Amino acid sequence: MPEILRRTLRDVFRHMTRARLALLPVLAVMLLLAATPLMAPAQAAAQAADEDGYALWLRYAPLPGAARAQLQAQARTVVRLAPASPTTDAAMAELQRGLAGMLGKAPATGNTVADGALVLARAADLPDTVRSSLALADAGTEGYVLRRTRLQGKNVFLIAANSDIGLLYGSFAWLRAAASGAPLESASAPALKLRVLNHWDNPDRTVERGYAGQSIWDWWALPDIVDARYLDYARANASLGINGTVLNNVNAKAEMLSPAFIAKAAALAGVFRPYGIRVYLSVRFSTPLELKETATADPLDPQVRAWWQREADEIYRAIPDFGGFLVKANSEGQPGPQDYHRTHVDGANMLAAALAPHNGAVMWRAFVYAPGGTKTDDRAKQAYDEFKPFDGRFAPNVLVQVKNGAIDFQPREPFHPLFGAMPRTPLMMEFQITKEYLGFSTDMAYLGPLFQETLAANTHHGSPPLSVADVLQQAPGKLTGMAGVANIGSDRNWSGSHFDQANWYAFGRLAWNPRGDARAIADEWAAQTFSRDTAVRGAVTGMMMVSREAVVNYMTPLGLHHMMGTGHHHGPAPWVDNLERPDWNPVYYHRTARDGIGFDRTATGSNAIAQYAPALAAQLADPRTTPEQVLLWFHHLPWDYRMASGRTLWQELISHYDRGVRQARDMQAQWAALAPAIDARRHAETAARLQRQAANAQLWRDACIAYFQSVSGLPLPAGVAPPAHDLDHYRKLRFPYAPGNG
Ligand code: GCW
Predict the structure, then answer these.
(1) Three-state SS across 50-118?
(2) What is the pLDDT of residue 4?
């Protein structure tokens, strides 16, 4: 697609009114017809083959001619010097599959080294001279080295590692480079040990905050019937280096630890094992009590402790490499040690003792907030208040799992003040891949920038100061990790939308390397998922990189947060003020009033800023030195407060909402222009979502402005379009069947 046509289209869309957007499908068809003669043959072929998204980024699409010849020369045969094992079998199978796709024909396999061979070898399989040239020590137990070298007098391409799983990861990395056109030679090792998906999947196959169909775990059919899809799930995760999966919801049912469910989990573990993925379970703290096997769930009670020990032993008999437990305790009504006047340490260490003989870990969540919202004056402070005093008191196999921000996966949150504040405790990051608060799987929001923003944030703790990524990596003891709340479901495309696959991808890549770059990751994903063509992947990446900021702009700009509808969390509801807990109400968070807007978290308010390192707290104490992106998170400011732009806060706020709407429309136009380069099915499915997103953006913008205006009493700045309806209209909107409330 020529640049000029792309730009023209973008401009057309930018100036379209909402009504005219209904013409989008017509326009897309016209464009398709107009652009067809311009298409390169390869593009035309790609477009003809409709894709449903099932293959994810592992499509291994045929390479264009020159690239194909180049790759062919690197893999005339695929040779395994490493001994056969389920894991090296998986690596061989993946290389065969990938090469067959990209080259049109699978190369022969064998164990004779010849010129042009692609060779899989562990350190132990290589002669000293080759081994010492590879710096394999840096690869550790899971990393790899991809290198052209001479072996047995032949020119080969070597995938080398210290372990079988390193060979599998290396094979995926080699295929990724081949598919996306990156240099084939590289070396890499994961920065974090536990790279884990958290499924919020229930035994009845509903998924809490799931927007991609039902749970992919067909619990009813397991363990006898094992869906072939589980293998593809393992492939996709291993391709990113994800090495753990928590199968069930943190709001856990006691039955998950019944023998029937352990057998189901064991069947899944069997599928995942060759791919280096360990299975974990979320546990309900009161399980022994609820199963009527003990009279209490008090973590200091000897019978309770003995029960958990027996339970752990039983699980490990069924799943010898079981990963451990994830626990949500004393949060949002879940049972926990505090019910028995015990502490988080008592609870976590009791479970840790049961798992320790088997090398299992406890991931104990710091997402806690008190019933009634009475414990503190600010919900954002509670996790820190409860956990910080326990620094250094958790057993060595406990990680405290902390959400990226102090409230709850909002479109933008400052990093959680616990990062850097518990130097003697391993802290594990928890991101949310599923987009509970960023438009479900209908709105496009690429989360790479959100993840990166948090990981790169300077905690101002330590000397030199540590970023959040440093804190994760430098955790004391041997455990480090990152968790992502999965966005995977039974939908054919796995994630509910094609672009939501990128969030799974970005999570995995950043869990492997928390210093990774969101844009580079998007580009790499786009090349594999859509097209290697520079213009196409550039356009796709461009949209992705704007998308999350667009959502922030049309939902919660300038540090606003928690303004969504009750329960289902879809759509705007900043007016809600009648829920039983104060800290469930949006008005608690934005504090819109006649005099201004925002939550004062400085010394004159809740003083939550004091939970950050002193240098950062000092910056945040003053609105002038607080980044505008999070201004209203920390400050309550008058409507006429002067922003850096020279505009008043009121004007600036509205301009953000308007920008968000414009950005959503721009994404629509940019995608429309890509029609000739993307297969019709995925193009149409994405276009429909973008159209819905533009409408959603408008709804948020109009409803929020109508609400703010009703409280501020201020006129709209000149030239600003009034909301389409009055406030009452928006207040009456209901979304009774919004998904994800599982
Ligand atoms: O705020 C919330 C979500 C809940 C979720 C909770 C948590 C699993 O709305 O659905 O429960 O976070 O992270 O525990």
Answers:
(1) CCCCCCCCCCCCCCCHHHHHHHHHHCCEEEECCCCCHHHHHHHHHHHHHHHHHHCCCCEEECCCCCCEE
(2) 40
